[in-house]
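Hi there, hope your week has been kind to you so far. For a while now I've been wondering how a particular protein folds. I'm sending you its amino acid sequence along with the backbone structure tokens. Could you read through the record and tell me how the tokens relate to the sequence? Take your time with it, there's no hurry, and the full record follows here.
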Amino acid sequence: MNFRVFIRLLQIHRVLVRHGMDEFVQGTRFAGPLKLAFLASPAAWFQRKHPGSRGERLRVALQELGPVFMKFGQTLSTRRDLLPDDIADELAKLQDRVPEFPGSEARAIIEAALGKSVAELFAQFDAQPLAAATIAQVHAAQLKDGSDVVVKVVRPGIRLLIERDIEVLYELADLAVKYWRVDHKLKPIEVVREYEKTILDELDLMREAANASQLRYNFLNSTILYAPQVHWDYCRSNVMTMERVRGVQLSDLDELRRRGTNFKRLAESGVEIFFTQVFRHNFFHADMHPGNLFVLVDNPELPVYAAVDFGIVGTLDPRDQHYLAENFLAFFQHDFRRVAQLHIDSGWMPPGTRVDELESAVRTVCEPIFNKALKDISFGLVLMRLFQAAQRFNMEIQPQLVLLQKTLLQIEGLGRQLYPELDLWKTAKPIMQEWMRARKHPRHVLREWRKQLPDIGEAVRRIPTLLQQSLMEAADRRTQLPHKSVDVAALCLELRISAKRRDRAIISAALLFSGVMWFALVVEPIWPGALCLFGSAVVWWRRHAV
């Protein structure tokens, strides 16, 4: 752990204690050193009453820790298989309320990326941003040919900030693995790794531009969704230029009402867009909240969605697509045995799962849903309940399915906000049934076979080579001489004990001066004496850790 990460950990520690997050540590099975780290804080000695629920306090703490932790909370809120409902609900409220950075800095970034001055590139450029978020901010501009565009610019220094805080998250995840007997489904390091991939992908605006172009191609000439055109000559990894969409933001319901928008049509179009993306295109916009959607109301009776911000998209394995559609159809037919069998056939369940036991669990969880009218049943809730039932049998939730569920809940929330009487089943069922019929059509089957012929031919060609290698490996194993085995288990145990002793010594040394550092952090720059204390702790550790 480097000194920069150590200082950041102390800052995080101070924020968490101030918001009563020591309650989480005390309520779990963390080992002594982590509990002592909280108890060593001066704030923990005096501030024992904290207003608000635990989920609310966690959300506020993440907001105070900055954009990287806010975005991590947003990502974590989609993993309802890992979190209690009250915490997941609060984390879902996290928003990117980030201050703007100066327009002069945006100009400098654009000029460095594109190799020309802003005056040469654009006929007009507005230094005042239209919007600012965690990763980037957006400026209005006009190309030399008169096209109105928006220019998205990645925040200066954001990569270093992200890399530092990702390193911190890995340290925290590593401590959780070492000192907390976590449930097998909760894999802290894997969760951080998944988040790291998501946020680093969002830093690459060329990738986002490619996503926007793909969505535009998929919905070319569509009457329900419009994707803006990307101007590739003005795109780099940290700058993206695309057509400016002039519509009403979906969150501005009063303006949509004033323009006489057909809300029933708008809500049904949202559902149709989602299921079309998932089952026909297998490429879905996975961040469809109101801030990323506009409505074109040139014809209020036929409103058209316009999507922006394509940083997060999702795809499904064709097998997952198939089993997901079959699951929905079987659920609405009350065929719970079929639902259970599909979960097993899909490979989502561990080997040896009994279909009758899984069927009973699915029925117990899902049957109460049918007390509601079909129009009141949530697809996202159905998916979540099915996952919850399957977790009893150690099903490990697939990240792509969780992303799909989160997006589906967003679409349903938007649809019912626009038109409370929306019947999702009525809108989605024809799309899924048509997709299922198309998959079983002989033309589709022949097309799939034709795609796989080159792979089949290559596999057949390699059979002799693979057979020869297998025979040689078998012969080698037979000729190996027996040897005396070493007591590996005892050696591993001794190494683990030694590692724990070393870690405890490090933490104990840190606790010796954490109180002093606490007050030192209030003053900027940090006291030079902190370096001396850190050096003293290292010397103490070297003498006593072994």
